[in-house]
């Protein structure tokens, strides 16, 4: 067994290894990385230094074992092949890279940020993302993310080399506000140029939209034209969406993974119908959750800039983008879809910079976190059959999400909300909700399957659902009511605390 030490990379430890006494081998697993480079493995095995360690170390063998794969071995970050390669800047790498390597290389890149500040204050406290002059590396990292996500979403590249434009946001809500503003502005500019009325802009969307769409419509004074769901259809009907288009339509929202059931709306069908009917209306795809799922799990599914009518797309970094809240992204197919009036050029932070977000200051860490995840994980799919997604059997195309409800049963004294309360007592937060309008007030429960939802966690959840149903089956109507009231009184959002009752909230509106 070969133990490589982190300190072995320093000149000091190299001396130790070359001296005649038995070398000190310090193993710091936190600094060890597994690499996939068979040639490198061979070279290191042959090096004099490691041979000496193998021969001369008289101590009992360490319980640490190398990965058995013939193409894996362990070394420090700077000894890895990644240290000699360019960091990915334009396209997500095809394969993953070890986490220590991604972390260290990004950290080195960022060391240029705020140098003057460090000289002045001794250390850099927090990076304000908006300060491009002080933190140019953070701004560059945002550009790399936009480029990678644009390519992931098949943004076309024009003959002059120009392509998608985009920005990071606090989340999909901000991204959607910006995209709606851009669609409204383009519609308004066109109508004004033609001498037509601009009094009644409208936007078309499914009744299953997330609340941020209703906010956008209200804040930006747009009439909402809803394509209603039906008891057997929880996503937009492409024909109905096209039927609603009129001269005042600024755009159509199509969702890649609805909040209610996780199902993908059919972007390709909506785009094709618009082309077929020669309707000059843009599509914005709300890919808040699906944008970081579909490209990897269903690469053949055409939902992005491959569809002619799609002009902008949003995605949340803090959902399946695997970054802490809040980061989101909005991208436009090309600069013509982002009216220049929405882009502010300022220079009060020391350099000319463009800003087209609703907020000004924000932390840079989430953008950096997003870049880390993009280069750390790469595009590679796990081997067939090992994808968590494939274990979640979905009836329709969509996110790894299970939405379920009770069968209609007039004898049952409790509903999905009661089950959600009961699960809360056992520590599970499984939200119950009423479906979108026009679905007979259907109630549902929803489990969003994320990375940490292991088989054993799944078994525990199912066991707790069974136990809870059993418990509720044995209660009469009166006891269920009392039980619900008790659960509501004694559980905060954590599902466990029985102290500090919730403060009375004043409901606005
Ligand atoms: C489909 C959809 N759009 C938009 C949003 C809002 O996203 P964010 O929380 O990133 O603002 C969500 C959040 O649940 C969503 O599911």
UniProtKB/TrEMBL annotation:
An annotated Gene Ontology molecular function: pyridoxal phosphate binding
EC number annotated for this UniProt entry: 4.1.1.15
Gene Ontology CC terms, in alphabetical order: cytosol
Enzyme class: lyase
Reactions accelerated catalytically: L-glutamate + H(+) = 4-aminobutanoate + CO2
Modification N6-(pyridoxal phosphate)lysine, positions: 319
Needed co-factor(s): pyridoxal 5'-phosphate
Region of interest called Disordered, as start-end residue ranges on this chain: 1-30
InterPro entries: Glutamate_decarboxylase (IPR010107), PyrdxlP-dep_de-COase (IPR002129), PyrdxlP-dep_Trfase (IPR015424), PyrdxlP-dep_Trfase_major (IPR015421)
Highest taxon of the lineage: Eukaryota
GO terms under biological process: L-glutamate catabolic process
Short name of any one Pfam family annotated for the protein: Pyridoxal_deC
Keyword set, alphabetical order: Decarboxylase, Lyase, Pyridoxal phosphate
NCBIfam families: Glu-decarb-GAD (TIGR01788)
PANTHER family assigned: GLUTAMATE DECARBOXYLASE
Family: Belongs to the group II decarboxylase family.
Protein name: Glutamate decarboxylase
